[in-house]
Model the fold of this input.
Amino acid sequence: MSPVMEAKTLSHLKQLEAESIFIIREVVAEFKNPVMLYSVGKDSSVMVRLAQKAFAPGKIPFPLMHVDTGYKFPEMYEFRDKFIADIGAKLIVERNEAAIADGTSPFKYGVQKCCGLLKTQGLLDGLNKYGYDAAFGGARREEEKSRAKERVYSFRDAFGQWDPKNQRPELWDLYNSQLNEGESIRVFPLSNWTELDIWMYVKMENIPVVPIYFTHKRKIIKRKNLLIPWVAHIPILEGDEILEMPVRFRSLGCMSCTGAIESNVTDLDGIIADLITTRKSERENRIIDHGSDSSMEQKKKEGYF
Amino acid sequence: MAIDTKSQLDYAKMDLLRFTTAGSVDDGKSTLIGRLLFDSKGVFEDQLEAIRRTTEKRGGEDIDLALITDGLSAEREQGITIDVAYRYFATANRKFIIADTPGHEQYTRNMVTGASTANLAIVLIDARNGVMTQSRRHGFIASLLGIPHVTVAINKMDLVNFSEETYEKIKKDYEAFAKQVGIKDIKVIPISALKGDNVVKPSENMKWYQGPTLLEYLEKVEISHDQNLKDFRFPVQTVLRPNLDYRGFAGRVASGVVKKGDKVKVLPSGFESTVKSIDTFDGELDQAFPPMSVTLRLTDEVDISRGDMLVHPDNMPKSSNKITAELCWMVSEPLSLKKKYSIKHTTQTIKAMVTEIEYRTNINSLEKEKVEQLNLNDIARVKIQTLKPLYFDPYSQNRNTGNFILIDELTNNTVAAGMIVE
Done:
């Protein structure tokens, strides 16, 4: 291959980047009132960077929205506020205050219902309140089997619900943005990224991520093969062990529903190497998915992103 | 073959191959994808464990690789695949995106969808049956969608005693067919997805086959020449005006190469200017090529908006409000001649009408049929009239400026995929 030809090919990360930027720009050009769902995790960090790239040298022309349950890790709130201040974006924090005041927790209502109230309802209320017609989410098709069939533009009815049997065909990069009043879309610019791509990109681009993705010492509850971060509101069951040990998190959510993994990885190279050799899927330690085999599909049908 | 150690990983050099697989469960398509993902470590232990449990529940013994590609609960209940699923795996050199499409006749629209973004198509043939109607249909759709590379995987070789003769016969038959429909690059590989022969590991049972395994081929097939680097086309997505001094035209290079200092022409206005800079978040570039997303600034104050196209003045696309196209109809409500649709082509959406159906292609016999209307999964040659001229190239020369979709103005649904002929 001559050097000239070589110069006309993009690496896979650059191709993914170019595709995501294209998608983000399409949405801004074609929708009246877009918002980016910001969940503080690594995918959100990458998605926000791509949004910066899409509109440089200008600022991101839409707000970010964090649907907060009140149960996130303290490190996440701290990271969020600094990250947003550093990039000068506008952040909206939405909480289902009524449900929070009611003491909603997975222990009171079960995981499914808690998620439904704090995450799905919180999200739908937030979208309705400001009348957003397009909401970016950082979900990836690789994450979960019901996501494998998700469109880049995921069409939602007036109740924010997903109908897997009635999805619009999506061809080439021609995204159909036509909506009727009250309908909306969720947009997934990271659809074609894998967890490995995300971490390689974080490394290549030097993107800030919440520090608890790396190994740190933490008080945890060991329950069978799960390592649950210790928080005062989690009831201790018979057989639980409380330990302090070096752990990290592979994905971040609510403290009571995010399992830790035992690890000694302290840098990005370590995370990438771990991913290449590890044989466990990313959501494995998400207690939330354990409800039933189809729980993600069910949640998406109800309006989850 | 799979990425085993960190040292093998040079992600700045990894490229990307998007491929589509067409075939039915009977051809062993799910088993093949399961095998590729399994042997290249694209499946995780806890996912495997869930599959093992399901296999046991159904009374199976060996792990059923086909379950790896199992999707929605609605599909599991009915034992069918209803939609395109996207799957991912990587080796040390390449990342792969699979558009996994169900192969039945009624799913032509899904096959077209999966093929639209693919550089390569895998057509599965059951060695016991030879080249059947379905394999021809898949090849025809691959060629219609302009997929540059077609790989024919002759599966279930274990059930024909790994016979070289059977392989040669099917190979000859399919190559003759490929020539007929204009498939440019074809590779035929004998495999057994169930046993793993020639999928990731070379077959012990087919020493007579000297070629690459399927994964070796997927890893090495040369795709850097597939894109059009000749005809510069830059559909403008949006105009960036962060302050009074900056006016940039954001978009993705659809084809060709643009360099700083190039003379460019704006369509449809016809105004000419010069590229002052090619901007990105990471700094200025000297040149841009597909599929890069960049922002162009020009030396003159020019009125440009979304839907306009920048090109080189000496290399113009075609322009017309009357086009002839291949159309794949994608919804159950039939095409209505004289009804107004929206056409989305590059970054512009305008009104359009289908004025004539020249003929429908029978996707099984490839015969041209005279029809009065188009129904779900029909593929036809049609004439379309648009409210304003489109700036396009024939799909065969330029996939990105030769494709379009039709949208129903009432339901807002995407009703057809189109490939411009002229």
Q: What stands out?
A: The two ends of chain A are 44 Å apart (CA to CA).
